[in-house]
Predict the structure.
Amino acid sequence: MIIEIEGIDGAGKTMQARLLKQSLEEKGHKVLIVKDLESTEIGRKIKEMFVSDTPRTKAVELFGFLCCKAHLFSEVVGAAVRDGNYVLCDRGFGSLISYFEAHGFERKLLEDMASIAVPNLRPSLTILLDLPVKEAIRRNMSKQTFSKFDNMGARFFEKQRQVYQTLSQQKDWRVVDAQMSIDRIHEEIMKLIGP
């Protein structure tokens, strides 16, 4: 089973992925957490390029993300699912679409390209940790280090949040209020996963 945890920067995705992994493992499940730009060597190399100050177009970024996603799913996620693991994606297809749609790409194009990059595997459940932008920015200010993605600004995060909210209308998406306490959010996520 593939579960994606989505939300703008500062929503608590990484923390909730870790808590969910721990709870599922306590129930006897095998669990793997993945991130597009961190879980493979290709992803790490592309991330190095993306966080550098080297100028590049959004189209270059889009194809880089698609390359990461295609490699991650073909080399890591597919094998983990076949072995009966839960795969928790700390960001996923929703992040790809929300980021690039907020930059002006059309959703249909992004969805078609994602389907080419990953033709067979899709999440069974996507959890959107919804958080107002002002609170996300406040939380991000406490980070030790900042990437260019953290510094996109309130206007961009508002666009991205709006895209997430429209994506969350799909039947395999659920929304959790990310303003609640960490423990309360985790409880809500566990309810969504079910027994």
User: Anything to note?
Assistant: The longest strand covers residues 125-130. The chain has one domain: 2-193.
